[in-house]
Hints:
By secondary structure, this protein is an alpha/beta fold. Helix content is 52%, strand content 9%. It is built from 19 helices and eight strands. It has helices at residues 24-39, 41-48, 70-91, 150-161, 180-194, 205-217, 221-229, 246-261, 282-290, 301-313, 322-331, 336-353, 359-365, 367-373, 379-390, 404-420, 425-431, 437-453, 455-469, and strands at residues 52-57, 62-67, 97-102, 170-174, 200-204, 233-237, 265-270, 292-296. The strands form two sheets. The protein has a five-stranded parallel beta sheet, sandwiched between helices. Helix 8 (246-261) links the parallel strand 6 and strand 7 (265-270). It is globular. Mean pLDDT is 82; it is low at 1-22 and 105-130.
Amino acid sequence: xxxxxxxxxxxxxxxxxxxxxxxxxxxxxxxxxxxxxxxxxxxxxxxxxxxxxxxxxxxxxxxxxxxxxxxxxxxxxxxxxxxxxxxxxxxxxxxxxxxxxxxxxxxxxxxxxxxxxxxxxxxxxxxxxxxxxxxxxxxxxxxxxxxxxxxxxxxxxxxxxxxxxxxxxxxxxxxxxxxxxxxxxxxxxxxxxxxxxxxxxxxxxxxxxxxxxxxxxxxxxxxxxxxxxxxxxxxxxxxxxxxxxxxxxxxxxxxxxxxxxxxxxxxxxxxxxxxxxxxxxxxxxxxxxxxxxxxxxxxxxxxxxxxxxxxxxxxxxxxxxxxxxxxxxxxxxxxxxxxxxxxxxxxxxxxxxxxxxxxxxxxxxxxxxxxxxxxxxxxxxxxxxxxxxxxxxxxxxxxxxxxxxxxxxxxxxxxxxxxxxxxxxxxxxxxxxxxxxxxxxxxxxxxxxxxxxxxxxxxxxxxxxxxxxx
Length: 470
């Protein structure tokens, strides 16, 4: 199928092509209208409206439908897969099968110029393999900014919109799911909006390597070099994938030099800082360091809160109490991508079951995700953090002193130990100077009672919890 995915002209599809009544896009609009009517506006807008047409294989008759996330793809496949396949076979018989996939894990949707009666349909040989296909969801307007990503976002926006920049290349690094790809797409789209005639090339480092090797085999290195080095903006994602590939790195270095020397713009992303990239030639690392190196750190609690708020605004009909939003921001800290997936899953289960979204519901739906994100907090960490917060010596946590300025922080530390660690009450008591488990029970009940009446103490505990979990 791969060989024909780009070929959207159906002239080779046999005699059936003569009976096709309308383009794929027209058929898709008919099918979408029927689904909205049959399923209701709320279900359609929440799950089916984001679907986009992908590639079509004229030989097998298989059409790709692309969803924004893997979870949404799985849900639509489970609940609407057969209905979609039947609808397509009814409206447009040339479509004999439907494959539902996630945009992040499969090919991006491609422009749909589809039918035999449209003479302008292009062949795979005519299509520029480096032509960008940016995701419209990934724009600067939808990128939530916080301390963890502020420098990277500001630099990306400057490079995309400014008439001239003082740095080139821009190197953005950070772990998986922190927003590097979002910024790449935002840069490309913003750059093209300001310069409609500009040439932008966007590809992963892995694709760079594959295309270069293919060019070598087909004796087309001149064409390969020309496509990349003529770009006004070159975007390369995940440069760490060319580590150890000497010939690819040689070509990559010369491409970088050509782009930068010509005054064109270059953006590169990686999961690590330049100095941490093993297997990359020193001269490439040196060239990268000449520009601006911007990191995207893990999202802190406040940024995670803001991201959840932004995502909820885009989920129709999902009512989520503030306590649940705060719970998710505290407990899912591994990546923004996982946080988005969790929100989609909560919304889907709430819609299917009709249950209200509360903390207990979220704990049930996201049990595996929450376990994977759970950070092992020690009693020692809690004692240290609480002692620093209340400005007492850590040794007071295990002392026999009963003065209020010591006893209250000690009770707070016991309470947090019960809430944030799996330790038993006797274990907690032993870590606080060999105290009995009944002392721990008293401390926990005392703090619970005081939190309800003392807003300052409640704020202290919320802050300490965020610091310990973040």
